[in-house]
Specification:
It contains 12 helices and no strands.
């Protein structure tokens, strides 16, 4: 059966093109402003008479974005690894034990999803100060991972509750202990959920501004968002450099997505299905 091209189909195509334009306009404005040469109109949607990549070189050099890029990468990778390990170890007993204690602990983790993180900023800052971690990447890694763990525990616990226990019971009959069963049986089964957690958290950790500003401002360990904010001053803002730096900041995430999109989509779909 051949579907006929009708007025309804045309209306749907027009609506989809309009929706695509809505999403592409901010990207066009970002690229347009980042490439504008000096003394050109500054409007976001105004076509300039001359474009140049000079803003990218100036943003990279003046903002010391090379070191900031490395700091952001270290924070993102370390935070995600810490989240995945801690959340997986916490979710396994919460999902498999049916006791009142495990249900209470699960609800305790869920409180972390609704309590604003800003409420814990002062005691967190004082704790990091007392531990001598202020100004170090470790402080941002611990803070970022801690704020992401409740949601990760929720995703992995719900995934495990929908996963049959057949392989775990077979491993137990073969003499595997709980730890060995977890690492060799459960963790491979958790790949879709782990992929989902990593995907949903890496962007927020990469783009996090407040926590790195709180712990790293004024040191040599600033992450990309903190470095980029340095282009905006009290009486002057270097907007072309800001937008160029924003594109530089987004590039690693976009490149990683395009290279791994097949696995990202599979992991995300599998995690939601579980």
């Amino acid at each position: 059966m051949i579907n006929r091209y009708t007025g309804r189909t045309l209306s749907l195509e027009i609506a989809l093109w309009a929706l695509a334009a809505v999403f592409l306009l901010p990207l066009f404005a970002l690229v347009n402003l980042s490439l504008k040469a000096p003394h050109n109109p500054t409007g976001a949607f105004v076509i300039a008479g001359q474009y140049s990549v000079e803003n990218f070189g100036r943003a990279w050099q003046d903002g010391h974005l090379g070191a900031a890029l490395m700091n952001s990468a270290v924070v993102a990778v370390a935070s995600i690894l810490l989240v995945l390990v801690a959340a997986s170890l916490a979710a396994y007993p919460l999902a498999r034990l049916g006791s009142r204690w495990s249900r209470g602990m699960f609800y305790l983790f869920m409180i972390g999803l609704v309590v604003p993180a800003q409420l814990g900023v002062l005691p967190l800052f004082l704790s990091m100060r007392d531990l001598g971690l202020n100004g170090s990447l470790l402080s941002v890694i611990l803070a970022g991972a801690g704020s992401s763990i409740p949601f990760a525990v929720f995703i992995i616990t719900m995934f495990l509750r929908e996963t049959p226990r057949d392989f775990e019971e077979a491993a137990s009959l073969d003499g595997c202990g709980p730890i060995r069963t977890f690492w060799h049986i459960v963790v491979p089964l958790l790949r879709p959920a782990i992929g989902t957690v990593a995907i949903l958290n890496v962007i927020s950790i990469w783009n996090s501004f407040f926590i790195p500003l709180l712990f790293l401002s004024g040191t040599g360990n600033e992450t990309l968002p903190v470095r980029i904010s340095g282009f905006v001053r009290t009486y002057y803002a270097d907007w072309p450099a800001v937008f160029a730096a924003l594109l530089i900041s987004a590039a690693p995430i976009l490149i990683a997505y395009f290279l791994l999109q097949k696995y990202i989509i599979q992991g995300f779909a599998g995690g939601l299905k579980g």
